[in-house]
Amino acid sequence: MISGPRALSRTNAAPPPELDRLQSVIVGSLEDDKGENIVTLDLAGKASFADRMIIATGLADRQISAMATHLQEKLREGGFGRVRIEGEGGSDWVLIDAGDIVVHLFKPDSRDLYGLEKMWGADLDETA
């Protein structure tokens, strides 16, 4: 039995191939839908809710909604099962919980406002 956050148990371990495959499907889907400024953050050892976070920008509600829907379909087709989507009905921020990877889709202004890259990025390591 593992105690503590699951991400902490793998801090020094190589990422499992399935996690890399999941990331590849997500990033590929976002690129196909013309997502902009796609960034992947490694959360291993920093968070217990996921191993990685992917952030992308869409220019309009309709694009962001389509990105979320297409991503959900591609993950299901890839054998990753159902994912949870929050904020899909016309929002500046949509969250997709794909298990070990959490995806945030933002309009540009909202992405700047929430600053997740600053909150969870490399700067976090420097202040610890």
Task: Kindly list the characteristics that best describe this protein.
disordered N terminus, alpha+beta, five-stranded mixed sheet, single chain
Describe the overall structure:
The protein has 128 residues and is α+β, with helices and mostly antiparallel strands. The protein has one domain (16-123): Beta Polymerase, domain 2. Helices cover 40% and strands 21% of the residues. It has five helices and five strands, in the order αββαβββααα. A hairpin with a 3-residue loop joins strand 4 and strand 5. The model is unreliable at 1-12 and 124-128 (pLDDT under 50).
Q: Main sheet?
A: 5 strands, mixed
Q: If you consult CATH, what is the topology? A: Beta Polymerase, domain 2
Which CATH class applies here? Alpha Beta
Query: Order of strands across the biggest sheet?
Result: 1-2-5-4-3
Question: Mean pLDDT across all residues, rounded?
Answer: 83
Quote the distance from N terminus to C terminus.
28 Å
Overall geometry: globular
How many domains, in number, for the residues?
1
User: What low-confidence regions span 5 or more consecutive residues with pLDDT below 50?
Assistant: 1-12, 124-128
Order of helices and strands: HEEHEEEHHH
Structural class, by secondary structure, is alpha+beta
Task: Count every helix, treating DSSP H or I runs of 4 or more residues as helices.
Answer: 5
CATH homologous superfamily heading: Beta Polymerase, domain 2
Strand content: 15-25%
Known CATH architecture: 2-Layer Sandwich
Can you give the helix content as a percent range? 25-40%
Radius of gyration: 15 Å
Number of strands: 5
